[in-house]
Amino acid sequence: MDAVFRVLSLGDGAPEIAGSPYGPFVVEHCDSPEQVAARLREQPPDALLLATAEPGALPDWPALAQAVLDTAVVVVLHAPAPRAAVELLQFGVQDVLADATDVPRALRLAIERRRLGLAARKGYSTDLPTGLPNHAQLLEHMTHLLALREREPAPMALIVLRVDGLAAVAETLGQESADVLRRKAAVRLRAALRASDVVASIGHDAFAVLLAWIDSPADGERVMDKLAAILSQPFSVAGRAQRLLPHAGLASYPEHGKSAEPLLRRALGAALQFTPVGRDAAQPADRGPAAAANDEEA
Is the pTM of this model over 0.85? Predict the structure, then answer.
């Protein structure tokens, strides 16, 4: 069954589109901008169709700023000036039309373009096998948080956990099993942290954990040891027990840097020099002689 597209319509110039082959559309006609705003708050439609003779007033309409975030917006103008049409597109409107007979096609294409844009943004910001934010999204989040820390100082830490063992699982059980193991590792990390902390996938064998605030640098070390120990515990994949050996690295703000990429490089470098935590693995000398809780035979 084809999807049904819900459209809010405002303005006397909106054509009848319910029977268009570009649909099917279900159209709700609104009597006022206030009614449109109320409908947008209740449940954003697939598209919003605005027919107006005063394009200059649209950018000042508060509901339009929210509408362009939540739905595909198409505007029908009577003899639109090129500058007005361009300004509306820059504001976030999907399309500006002078001919109302083209509305069904424009609405359907606007809906599809918006869906493709959302999928592209999700692909850009998400590591698909784990569902975690990816490298680019982590750096963006760190940049915003570091800007906040410049105004409201507070220590924070970035932990990198590189894991050995995924390649062996992919070779013996297949890539799908290796992806399952990565997902299970991601879930285990997420469950061990606060809601305010960020877990990201920064490569096929590496995770990053951003501690949004800590009381002291020692807290970052403690959390790093805890997460390494958690990842060292066996996972069940395809009916077999599988182990990962984590390499852990830490960078602290502001001691080790005040921008995202230098902090990430430092944490990655520390992880590369770190002896894997797990069975038969020793802690590096500068981290003290204490063994992790899971260093014993399982």
Answer: no
